[in-house]
Design goal:
heterodimer; A: 351 residues; alpha/beta; Rossmann fold; seven-stranded parallel beta sheet; five-stranded antiparallel beta sheet; globular; B: 333 residues; mainly beta; six-stranded antiparallel beta sheet; five-stranded mixed beta sheet; 31 strands
Chain lengths: 351, 333
């Protein structure tokens, strides 16, 4: 019943990327594919023109602070209005694509889907897709906090204009991206020539799909697992240097990190729930994204959660499969995270 | 008439019909029932004899306002259209490439907003514009004088379109949506993004906070005597007392028709202290304020009630649903 209703919600894909990275190229690429779908496209009214689509809506990126005592709780007021209006055309389009300006913070867009009840009823955030310029991203990560936010926030990252860089430079930019966000799916492209399935219908914010759609998430977990248990070496204390590990060059961004913790076994819900609430309350302004899959003591089902800044969404999902290892893992991506505090705090939730 | 639960029912007196698309607003133009539809059409006439006008061809009607003989609709085609009781439609404005977000009407004066731009057209047809600091979601004419309230982020502007100079701003943090003046013009009330209402006593700009809603309030209706304001957004119609000089300050509202379903529309009867309440599950009730007596008008089913309107003497109630189902009640006797 719930699933059937969920299915009817209009998927919303958010396209971000720094100025000139190729957002509009990607948008036109999506729209020109013979997919037979009808898209409503929301563009910044001061943005580039030349989008060939029937339904294009100009947005003005009005970010509203919510008076709910949460300092980082902001929403896109214009998006709430636009989605409300688009629902009057229900059945006349299949999905919504929101293109943000190059300087936009993706958080207010994502938070709109957590905060606004009417938006939640009719639409669901599918994924945040970030287009990065292979040649210039490394520079932008140094001088533009917006660019870093967009990488950290992404579910899907398209490294565009790869024809303008050498293979070594490309590996370098990938390593820089991975230092900030090891969990997004990465695609190399020239002129944004990626498959439409890599960008749309990702269901990146669906709790029951959080792990299934992200092979890199699992791979990264294993990598981290090695670190925690074999090398006992903490990433967060190393700053902006590269080293070779498993044949890949690793960078550590001074400002933005990801912290992932694996707990071998169950957690005690009486410890975990207050802990996750406390962490997101205390470090919420610095946490861009968090997610996790947790084995709750005496619960046959997997507890899955995700969050944006201080906002959390969690639910019990499918049962642990027979023979599946009951383990608990959490991932945080953010700015100046207190990694050790998160790590120790989560491990202390063990049942 | 009484159904199995002992509730008086007039459900059998409702003539049900298919409006063909989501009902955005309902009205009576003189005596003629009229529905503004999400597919851009306006349906006028008695059930079975309706005439459909393509007020916004190939577009969607987003907002509507009504007074007397005129149904004003605003669409995502940027058009503002005035439909008369005789079935004629007149284009009032066309904001190319924009959406009409809010409307207001008083007599033959109209106002509309598209994004930050607010426009007011007086009886002579002269149009003035004002640019708000942020998008305008709600407009209301003050009951007396040619003055317009326009809601925006962190406040409401009170604008005299005929005078130069900046409007007066009533500030209150947060995003304001719909606006309504009390019939006597003493109070201005807005609904907010934060599941609350905010009010101002205009004489001294004193603030009134009306909170506790689980959802957004998008339907507001004053009683004929101006003493009560019925509101949607909770699992009952929340009815605030405005009779005293302090309005609802320090007073608890009445909760009418408490059910396990969200109230989506409210409409006070034009002559009696009776409020029509529509819920998210399709149920429609009439409730008498004096003794909370209930009359069932429509049984649950079919999705949210999206429009309710009384005719001038209160003998007929027009009902519209998001699903496109509609009904016309003729009160017996």
């Amino acid at each position: 019943m719930t699933e059937a209703r969920e299915f009817e919600k209009i998927p919303v894909t958010v396209l971000t990327g720094y100025l000139g990275a190729g957002k509009t190229t990607l948008l036109n690429r999506i729209l020109s594919e013979p997919h037979g779908k009808r898209y409503a496209v929301v563009v910044n009214e001061f943005g580039e023109i030349g989008i060939d689509n029937e339904l294009v809506i100009g947005a003005d990126e009005e970010v509203f602070e919510m008076n709910n005592g949460c300092i980082c709780c902001t929403v896109r007021g214009d998006l709430i209005r636009i989605i409300e209006g688009l629902m009057k055309r229900k059945g006349r389009f299949d999905a919504i694509i929101v293109e943000t300006t190059g300087l936009a913070d993706p958080a207010p867009v994502a938070q709109t889907f957590f905060v606004d009840e009417d938006v939640q009823k009719s639409a669901r955030l599918d994924a945040v897709v970030t287009v990065a310029d292979a040649k210039w991203l490394a520079h932008r990560l140094r001088d533009a906090p917006e660019a870093k936010n967009q990488i950290a926030f992404a579910d899907v990252i398209i490294i565009n204009k790869t024809d303008l860089v050498t293979p070594a430079e490309l590996r370098e930019v990938e390593a820089r991206i991975r230092a900030i966000n090891p969990y997004a799916s990465l695609h190399r492209a020239t002129k944004c020539d990626v498959g439409i399935a890599d960008v749309l219908e990702r269901r990146a914010f669906d709790l029951d799909r959080i792990l299934d759609i992200e092979p890199d998430f699992l791979a990264a977990e294993e990598h981290d697992h090695d670190h925690d248990h074999d090398h006992d070496h903490d990433h967060a204390h190393h700053h902006d240097h590269g080293h070779i590990h498993h044949g890949l060059k690793h960078y550590h961004d001074e400002d933005m990190q990801s912290v992932s913790v694996l707990l071998d076994g169950d957690v005690d819900p009486a410890k975990f729930m207050p802990w996750i609430n406390r962490v997101t309350q205390e470090q919420g302004p610095n946490i861009l994204r968090c997610k996790g899959v947790v084995a709750m003591k005496d619960d046959p089902r997997r507890f899955v959660f995700q969050g944006v800044h201080m906002m959390l969404d969690g639910d019990s999902q499918r049962e642990w499969k027979p023979g599946e290892k009951r383990e608990s893992k959490v991932v945080f991506i953010g700015r100046k995270l207190e990694a050790e505090d998160i790590r120790m705090g989560f491990l202390a939730c063990a049942a | 008439m009484t159904d199995a639960q002992g509730t008086t029912s007039l459900a059998e007196h409702v003539r049900v019909f298919d409006a063909g698309a989501e009902v955005v607003a309902a009205a009576f133009l003189d005596a003629a029932p009229a529905l503004a539809l999400a597919d851009g059409g306006v349906l006028i006439g008695e059930p079975g004899e309706q005439k459909r006008l393509e007020a916004h061809p190939d577009a969607a009607i987003l907002v509507a306002a009504v007074e007397g003989r005129t149904f004003l609709t605003g669409g995502d085609d940027g058009r503002v259209v005035a439909t008369g009781a005789d079935g004629t439609a007149q284009a009032i404005a066309e904001e190319k490439g924009r959406w009409i977000d809010a409307l207001a009407i008083r007599g033959s004066a109209f106002a509309w907003s598209a994004g930050k731009q607010v426009s007011a057209r007086d009886e002579t047809g002269s149009i003035r514009n004002w640019t708000s600091p942020s998008s305008v979601r709600g407009l209301a004419f003050q009951p007396k004088g040619f003055r317009l309230a326009a809601t925006h982020y962190n406040g409401v502007a009170l604008w005299f379109p005929k005078f130069e100079g900046p409007p007066q701003t009533l500030e209150w943090k947060g995003a304001h949506l719909d606006a309504t003046f009390s019939p006597d013009g003493r109070f201005l009330v807005t609904s907010m993004q934060e599941n609350a209402l905010h009010g101002w006593r205009l004489a001294d700009s004193r603030n009134m906070r009306m909170t506790g809603y689980p959802g957004k309030t998008r339907s507001l209706s004053w009683s004929h005597d101006g003493a009560w304001l019925a509101t949607s957004g909770a699992d009952a119609a929340v009815v605030w007392p405005f009779k005293d000089k302090d309005g609802p300050m320090g007073k608890a509202p009445r909760e009418c028709g408490v059910r396990e379903a969200r109230v989506t529309r409210v409409a006070f009867h034009p002559r009696a202290l009776v409020v029509a309440i529509g819920y998210a599950d399709g149920l429609v009730l009439l409730i008498r304020l004096a003794d909370a007596a209930e009359i069932l008008i429509r049984r649950p089913g079919g999705g949210p009630v999206s429009a309710l309107a009384w005719n001038g003497d209160g003998a007929r109630l027009l009902i519209g649903l998001e699903s496109g189902e509609a009904g016309l009640l003729d009160l017996p006797g």
